[in-house]
Amino acid sequence: MFSVKELIYIANMDIFEKAAEVGIKKHPRNLKEEVTYGTAGFRMRADSLDHIVYRMGLLSVMFSKFRSGVTGLMITASHNPEEDNGVKLIDLMGQMMPIAWEKYATSLANVSDDKLVDVLQEIAKLECIDVTKPATVSIGRDTRASSLSLSEAAVDGIEAMKGKCNDFGLLTTPQLHYIVCCQNTVGQYGEPTEEGYYKKLSAAFLTLNKNRKVINYVPELYLDLANGVGAPKLQQLCAYLGDVLKINVCNNGSGKLNYQCGADFVKVSQMQPVGLNLEPGMRCASFDGDGDRLVYYYKTSEGKFALLDGDKIATLFAAYLNDLLKSSQLKLNMGLVQTAYANGSSTNYINDVMKIPVACVPTGVKYLHHKAQDFDIGVYFEANGHGTVLFSQTAQKLIRNQASDNSLDEVTRDAAVRLATIMDLINQTVGDAISDMLVVETILASKDWTCEDWDSAYTDLPSRQIKIKVENRLLVETTDAERRTTKPAGLQEAIDEVVAGYKHGRAFARPSGTEDVVRVYAEADTQANADKLACEVGLRVYNLARGIGEKPSV
Ligand SMILES: CC(=O)N[C@H]1[C@@H](OP(=O)(O)O)O[C@H](CO)[C@@H](O)[C@@H]1O
Ligand SMILES: [Mg+2]
What cofactors does the UniProt entry give for this protein (predicted)? Predict the structure, then answer.
């Protein structure tokens, strides 16, 4: 007689062995280097990814069985070059896969073909997974040339592990997060389709912009789509918006993905993208390649390029929500979550002027999202334009109750109705360029603001970001939400010494989780000083952390 545990083990073994056979035959491991499930899953050159994506297909099914719900798998390398690709897994409510599972992903990706069964068995044992249980995985992909065949590898993995696969084809990353959340909440969050996504967002946007009276706000936006998946998706959305917002698009798929365009390019180079003739008076924005980042920009009347990045979007959102909270007489606490890359001026403004609690966490959406859950209303944004707002269950309930309380005066109730509708406009599962753009437009219209009005809240300190190539980036270790290094020995002291020589100086170095580099960030009183500080800190990293190739120079 076998025990239940033994029977599960035998049934699992059968499936695992077959999955390993398919793996060897169709998706053999072709990479010698070790890879790590990083800030946004696995990311590397697309031609090294096939076996990893197949194996993530396997893992996504085990994760679905473990969670007893629909999990997600997205194929994208976001803002990285066209030649790269990546894969990441999504949890039931549309959040990132838990950190505990990242180590399973890493061991599964690195194990040799002949030991694949052992790792699968180990995960099943550790998490008590019965592989014979039903499982469903929803998958999506971006527009990269390599994405279709990689998504087929994922389907192979899902089917080999006896999971059901919902292949949604081309999607922005946040659309897949939204769909997964809808599927697991049985439609409560919305209809689990792409169509449902457009309907939910556009309905909220149209309601919020119905009776607006604007003089300064111009309902016309110039939008750079990074030649990514945002392009076809935005076009679909526009059909629902009518003439409430005119969107002129550029980099809408005919050029090279993320090349001199897109949110990352605009943020890092602090320059307008190709294909856009920026003139004063134009309100412009950029998505990244998979549609989960958004930055705005404009040209000042003096002809200077001015960026409204994730920090500016976060403060715009938080201030507006705070006003609505006050007017609707709701006592809910609100907090803002940033990373070390947030401009120092924004942090000061939130602390000193807005008087809202602000937290700093390590880079990566998973950390921001997690911290934002500490508040009734948690606004989180990375400076690069990835972010959203989370409303706790209690907050959602109180806001909806207030919105439907007929005994309240009109002003109070209107504010509560607006808050409730804004909740529907925000993609709470993850940062979403489409949704965030609609929220920004709604707020600007409601305040009757231009970009200059929005930008006038505080002035960014000049900043610079550079990348340093090193032999092994993991030699650099950090603490204090990545603001200080603990290794290699002497690096932090060297950084401190350099920073001390600059007015309003602040700088830090950390290993990237998505590229093989150490990133250096610096800010100071002038652009020239920020550039110089970044370079000087970069040199210390180069010298103390075994830099390779060209030394940084201003
Ligand atoms: C400075 C910066 O922008 N870092 C980005 C980048 O991570 P790194 O770990 O810095 O490579 O990609 C992540 C995923 O898209 C994003 O979450 C993060 O903010
Ligand atoms: Mg992205």
Answer: Mg(2+)
